Amino acid sequence: MERLWGLFQRAQQLSPRSSQTVYQRVEGPRKGHLEEEEEDGEEGAETLAHFCPMELRGPEPLGSRPRQPNLIPWAAAGRRAAPYLVLTALLIFTGAFLLGYVAFRGSCQACGDSVLVVSEDVNYEPDLDFHQGRLYWSDLQAMFLQFLGEGCLEDTIVTNAQDFGAQGVLIYPEPADFSQDPPKPSLSSQQAVYGHVHLGTGDPYTPGFPSFNQTQFPPVASSGLPSIPVQPISADIASRLLRKLKGPVAPQEWQGSLLGSPYHLGPGPRLRLVVNNHRTSTPINNIFGCIEGRTEPDHYVVIGAQRDAWGPGAAKSAVGTAILLELVRTFSSMVSNGFRPRRSLLFISWDGGDFGSVGSTEWLEGYLSVLHLKAVVYVSLDNAVLGDDKFHAKTSPLLTSLIESVLKQVDSPNHSGQTLYEQVVFTNPSWDAEVIRPLPMDSSAYSFTAFVGVPAVEFSFMEDDQAYPFLHTKEDTYENLHKVLQGRLPAVAQAVAQLAGQLLIRLSHDRLLPLDFGCYGDVVLRHIGNLNEFSGDLKARGLTLQWVYSARGDYIRAAEKLRQEIYSSEERDERLTRMYNVRIMRVEFYFLSQYVSPADSPFRHIFMGRGDHTLGALLDHLRLLRSNSSGTPGATSSTGFQESRFRRQLALLTWTLQGAANALSGDVWNIDNNF
């Protein structure tokens, strides 16, 4: 534009000095009209300084203004030169734009194409977002905490009786399982605990299949559904019944603290049990909300909370739902202020949770063929606040390193001046031994990992070595939860929200997914110690575990190969980045056994699943070698070690582990396996 402006000035200098008629927009009462004014064409006068609606008039006809020179030759020349001036201006503008794009590519603060990894370094540069320029990790963290602090969370809140011939089961809350600390409230002895006894998740009559409206599967009872009646009773009723039992005294581990109850094994008087359950089909509704990602919108970071409860459900569902809603509000505010995640954030409120994570499991079953390709991680807010003494993270090993990193960023809710990480290591220097726990089956997070192959985590603040007494009861109220935490409920809920929120930022915004894909090599190594215990027994039978060791070594080499590829790759190559992220996000899926049916064995994960294909089942079978009554190689029995079964288990485990190594390694034509 400066070059074009210079051409106009040069043309003005070459033309005769004359008065020009300029049309100006007039403000005030005459607004909207054009007014003429005459200006002397003095040299240096800025007649074209304002780019408002105006017009340069050509000379008047000869004789209309006696003192005005004839400008017709200049006007004709100007008309002939106009196309060249416009063309010159376009060429200059295009050249300047291309030069600026090349020179400043990657540093322009208004561009959104530059993608970097968010790290703990306060000087680290994450994605460059529209509207806001550079957003550093410290900026995102401060923005998140600012908007989270503007809300108010406080205002928002693995079948034995049947196998041994029992005709029914009565379940009561044993006082020894709960805190007897007088300052803290305890469960009434007249209160029963509600729940379900399905040893599985989801609709028990459509195991492995979605119970959507359009499905026509005939009802089939789950293998984890007992065929005998089960009824919850209070501690008072249990005490009256136990006092009527005779026979030998129960083992020490069966002893409780019911007053006046001797805990005998029986026999006792006959008891008539009547359970009045009404089976009916009831529709449930999951609620979804999404913030679409900018670079990888088809990859989702999922966070969810159970919405329903048997009773008031303050701890069971209300706290998690409140945190979920606050995170939705906080991230929406961040988006309004320039935050654009690289991946999509999917917020879900689950229904039917107290009946066995029905809402989440049926959704997983309905989208089984695609979720492992789309879902990056699942974060569960269920059971988030059950106390404030200890913090546990029930999680997949892939998330352990990331959890450690985030714990160092969140303040402890009950130890002023300490982070959560400092609070944990003060008690136990081995932080992971203190914090990390396996995913339990009654968590919605379990199905994500063991059934679909998506890494998941569930955070919980717990009482010190005691269970929250009111869970699954009518006394799970806000008042009782507040009393158990002695007024610290808002602070603890805020800590969970900060922990989950910062985890979501890292998972949705980092250029490379912060999942520790090499960790499963260490997981296998820990289990190999247990396997080595039986190497001599197996050798005597002509069996070996060598292939398990070999597969583990291949996995470690594949993980290191991928790590080196990432390290040496071009950071801004989006095609490579996406390729690496796809391989990383599918690691958990690689550990689902492809050799068993999801309908017969839904939880196919070889480390966290259930069934004969798992490492746990293999170890349990190996222990039978020491208890085999015959003690001779080749001997089998219906309850002892069976060589044919062991060979099948070993094959399932080995090839699942080897398949994970092959998949992580990359291109199939570069894999060298001896068949």
From TrEMBL:
Belongs to the peptidase M28 family. M28B subfamily. The keyword Transmembrane helix applies. One of its GO terms (cellular component) is cytoplasmic vesicle. The chain crosses the membrane at residues 84-104. Keywords: Membrane, Signal-anchor, Transmembrane, Transmembrane helix. One of its GO terms (biological process) is multicellular organismal-level iron ion homeostasis. This is Transferrin receptor 2. The keyword ATP-binding does not apply. GO terms for molecular function: co-receptor binding; transferrin receptor activity.
